[in-house]
Amino acid sequence: SQQGEEDPQALSIQEGENATMNCSYKTSINNLQWYRQNSGRGLVHLILIRSNEREKHSGRLRVTLDTSKKSSSLLITASRAADTASYFCATGGTGKLIFGQGTTLQVKP
Amino acid sequence: GAVVSQHPSWVICKSGTSVKIECRSLDFQATTMFWYRQFPKQSLMLMATSNEGSKATYEQGVEKDKFLINHASLTLSTLTVTSAHPEDSSFYICSAPPRGAVAYNEQFFGPGTRLTVL
Predict the structure, then answer these.
(1) Which structural domain, as residue segments, surrounds residue A57?
(2) pLDDT digits (tens, 9 = 90+) for B12-48
(3) How far is CA B65 from CA A39, A69, B18, B83, in A?
(4) Of B93, B97, B114, the CB nearest to A43
(5) Which residue of A has its CA nearest to B100?
(6) Number of folded domains in chain A?
(7) Is the Cβ–Cβ distance between B107 and A56 less than 8 Å?
(8) How close, in Å, is residue A48 to chain B by CA atoms?
């Protein structure tokens, strides 16, 4: 079963703009991960945030985690056409990951 | 980072035939690997956990006799879709946490296998 919801399901922006996508989950977590998937390809790990962290940065990515609301957000700043992909949050225990529904991001040049 | 490969990257087969998909960890050992299935425009759903030296464990609703998993070595797991039907057409992705990984949820994904059953 899916862990939670992601919104928006689809997002279309112009190159240079920021993209924000949100993820909610249902159960307690140790950490939350974000992955990117280009069309028809495998997953690329972007960032992991632990349950005792509130914010984490990696390059143009910023992830926040609010365990009281059971939600996380991924912000991509200064987007590029190459950022066009689907983005998934994932939580897991004992190594098994449960993925959110995903947000499909289109960045127009 | 660690590399996980899958073979084949895509396969087309006739209904009723069996298809084997391989998942290999190329530069690390993995006692456990995971198999996911992804239908078009949907998220990944965990199918089963492949355990080296023991039986695989399947998620609820996944038929173990239809999706045979064999974890033959510390670097290879295979998923065999038996008597495939068109509804089995999907994107199959494996993942593996490195053996002894401190953060057990640190996993590496294969590039996926696109199965089309005619």
Answers:
(1) 5-108
(2) 999 999 999 999 999 888 888 999 999 988 999 999 9
(3) 30, 40, 12, 10
(4) B93
(5) A95
(6) 1
(7) no
(8) 9
